[in-house]
Amino acid sequence: MADGQWTPSPDFNRLRTALLRQGEPDRVPLHDSVDVFLKKRFLGLQSADLQRATSRMQTGARLPLELEVEFAYRAGYDFVPLGASMHSGIADTSTVVKAKYAAFGDEYQERGWANEGRGIITNNQEFESFPWPDPEELDMAPFEQVGRILPRGMKVLVDHGKIFTGIWWLMGLEVFCGAIKRDPDLVARMYETVGAAQYRILDIATDFDCVGGVRFADDLAYAEGLMVSPAHLRRHFFPWFKACIELVHKKGKIFVFHSDGDVRLVLEDIIAAGADALHPIEPKAMDIVELKRTVGHRIALCGNIDLAYTLTRGTPAEVEAEVRERIRHVAPGGGYVLGSSNSVPEYVPLENFNAMREACFKYGRYPIALD
Amino acid sequence: MPVTDLILKDLKQRVIDGEPEAAVALAREALAAGCAPDVIFKEALFPAMDEVGRRMQCHEYFLPEVLLAARSMQACAAVARPLIVKEPALKPIGKAVVCTVAGDLHDIGKSLVCLMLEGAGFTVIDLGHDCKAEKIVAAVREHQPDVVALSAMLTTTMLKMKEVIDALKAAGLRDRVHVMIGGAPVDDKFAREIGADFYSEDAPGGSNHAREYVTAAKA
């Protein structure tokens, strides 16, 4: 289906209905984090002033707001993502590598990588002297601006989270792992400080009328299982996670939880905390059909179109076939939002990204009638 | 039970528990009590890391526990290994070149594989991350390993694994090494596609397979 044959009809209630499992909306909604580089290609932009930002991991590179909105509108999303996080107030500590990451042409791109060894807060002295950003000082002007230009029916999803991830970024993964046993007080202080700052920022961001919900991203797991023990997460992470969900729900907004990997050891904790939806459900880590059967009546499911093969190395026909199958098995009854099994990075070919969207429009109209 | 056996049993447990200072003190105590350094590896350090790998695979241990145990093992090895340089009793079971491929800075998975291989008795040459094919080929030529283990985190960087295998073929070295791959986006199917010998979903699995491979190859 060509772009011209499909008319955009953003409707946040479509997404909200699916995420809150309130029956079947008019069609399966789309959800993803799409790389700036790919958005530019989609919009046909080439100008030098839209060079992607170097800092990718902590500040969240994005296009100018008008273009973010235009991309979301033309691509068929019901929301525009907008970041609000204490990490945008901290100097980027990632290591940047330049390589040919993209699926297009021969261009080199930069990608930031978290420090897995030693970070910038490794002891109490560094904790005390660290210039912690003040949530009240965070620039929220983009929320005001985007509220003025959103198309009718579209809302903002706040990109937030990174309490667990943010702490190990700051400490360095190895230091963080060591400190769990050898300096538990420092770890507890990190959770209190980062958790409180992120909670306050979430409170500020979700006060904007244009905000319809939150995408809380915190990678707790690898494909083979959790990075740290369930006991650690229950003691330090889940209290903040639950508080954030309660805050968002109190304001009548929705809460999508993103974690890479296999989170089944804490799935009950995620559900009990009140998360509306789980994203992105990597096929290698978890079986979405099994999740739909076992917990699909308690939490909505998002994502699962395979980034490891289909979206990156497959053909558009293979992408279409996978989307069709996913919709056939998981979408009936609602509670499913379609998208990549992680995100749409720069190395996804544009034709595969388009094949995913267009297959969603083609097969995702309710009632689902696929054999 | 002889006193050295008691010390080694305690040492093994301290490594499993991730207590490097206590483990090193016990390693020194074992040596002072007359325990041969190679016995420290065979009776305490290697079995400890086997147990750590087992616990990781059944989700009793997670990254922090594994890293602390591995660091404890390394600290003890640093005490005992210099004493067995001239000792033929503890030959490495094999040699492994390990790295993350070009464009990829994911380190922790690769480091875990290094630690588990070391804990299994391999000599490990850790080339680090962001390694181009030519660097890996040069290392294979120089060190003549039994095993080459490649890691990647991204779908785009995992494609570099094939470039490494092609470069090994071009250099006439492919048949001399057993190539294992691992990392978030790769799987068994991809391993077969690119002509790798083995895919492991985790570090203990890779280490166990490498040990089985060299044991069978040298039998």
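The domain at 3-363 of chain A is CATH 3.20.20.210 (TIM Barrel).
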